[in-house]
TrEMBL record:
Name of this chain's protein: INSulin related
Keywords: Disulfide bond, Secreted, Signal
InterPro entries the UniProt entry points to: Nem_insulin-like_b-type
Protein's cellular compartments: Secreted
Organism: Caenorhabditis nigoni
Gene: Cnig_chr_I.g3228
Length: 77
């Protein structure tokens, strides 16, 4: 019975954390191929900023999807 309660509490905590911090607000460090995939997902494949500049920003520091959209997808906003 106590295993069930502990398992339920862990699951509830995981759900609460996921709801409180959606992926668009979480910050990720993206470089190379993973940055390209992220730009495809967030901006639809095109970036209005020079690739080297966005690579420096996204690879050296963590940025959220919302920040990436503001920097890179200005034509979509």
């Amino acid at each position: 019975m106590s295993r069930f309660i502990v398992s339920f509490l862990v699951l509830a905590l995981a759900v609460a954390i996921t709801i409180a911090h959606p992926d668009s607000a979480r910050k990720f460090r993206s470089c190379g191929h993973f940055l390209n995939l992220r730009i495809d997902r967030v901006c639809g494949g095109t970036c209005s900023m020079d690739y080297d500049a966005i690579h420096d920003i996204a690879c050296r520091s963590k940025i959220s999807d919302d920040q990436l959209a503001q920097i890179c997808c200005s034509s979509l906003l």
